[in-house]
Amino acid sequence: MNKLLRRTSDPSRIPDNAAGGLLHIDLDVLASNWRNLRDHAGGAEAAAVVKANAYGTGIEQAVPALLRAGCRTFFVAHLDEAICTRAVAADAAIYVLNGLLTGTGPTYADFDLRPVLGSSEEIDEWAAFSRSEGRRFKAAVHVDTGMNRLGLTVPEGLALRDRTDLQDFDLALLMSHFVSAEEGGNPLNGQQIEAFQAVRQSLPGIPASLANSSGIYLAQKPHFDLVRPGYALYGGNPTPDRDNPMSPVVGLEGRIVQLRWIEPDQTVGYNGRWTALEQRRVATISVGYADGYPRSASARGNSSETVLAGMALVNGRRCPFAGNISMDLIAVDVTEAADQVQRGDTVTLIGGDLTVDEVGRRAGTIGYEVLTSLGSRYARTYRGGEG
């Protein structure tokens, strides 16, 4: 028992038969998706966004696989993620998107990391830190072209050329971020490209980056010098109005821990929000919202209604959820597959034609949230990734 408890502290080493859910991650497909995006980027360098623990797949596993594929630049959200990335990517360029927290300059220097500076105050602090150390440390500057979240305003970006303290550090990248690149016809895309080009032209010779996953596929081809794919690397569709050019990286299975017949007019789950109108066979799966599966995919109504709620693949058959998703359990109506199901079997929650994008839609959210919420209680298996 003690040996098992010690092993389960590391999700990658949880024995399959001790976990309610099985998370499968294909590192070879991850690398292939990166190469696909690189080849579509028109000669620009392709970085990789590995924030949120590489979108739930694991920084320690995903980054080495991407390095072997040829990736040399990585983006994370937080400083601790950057330190984790540095541990497995000794020579890569690593940018921290959420900027420079006060007083963290020495940590950036110790680990050779690059903040993405998004305000005049951050530029002031980074320039002063570089002067104090007598070194021109590298950083990116983020200009906001429409997101209104992080970054200098466009007028502030145009005024950068007059700032003498830019000479105190190495401005290695000028960047911005699309608001709606997944909507190819959105006029805001063109407006952002125009604004970003104006700032770029005012700072000649500085490498520039605008395109995220979806931005790589825009008709305007705003690839500039470096593209920053994230979601698409992990199998999400960067072109939701067209077929997905990416291949799935993540598969999720849940284990059946009990089967029961539900009689007519009986309810399933908390608060009795789902009712059987006739006898139904229900399987209880040992996965819940504490494992990162969105509770918003709960099924409400009755066994005859067609609702946009969660779905599982049971021996290749689509079977709908029944009732509210619990912290640790999901009930699935497996009546149509009842003669093929037994306790201990696994059902597919992500995989096959049940894509991560569809799982997100059925939960009223997006595949990004599904991937980045994948929890630590799954037994994780990795395929490929070797040199």
Automatic annotation (TrEMBL):
Enzyme nomenclature, EC number: 5.1.1.1
Residues noted as binding substrate in the record, renumbered to the chain: R149, M327
InterPro entries: Ala_racemase, Ala_racemase/Decarboxylase_C, Ala_racemase_C, Ala_racemase_N, PLP-binding_barrel
Residues that bear N6-(pyridoxal phosphate)lysine: K51
GO CC annotations on file: cytosol
Family: Belongs to the alanine racemase family.
Listed name of the protein: Alanine racemase
Gene: alr_1
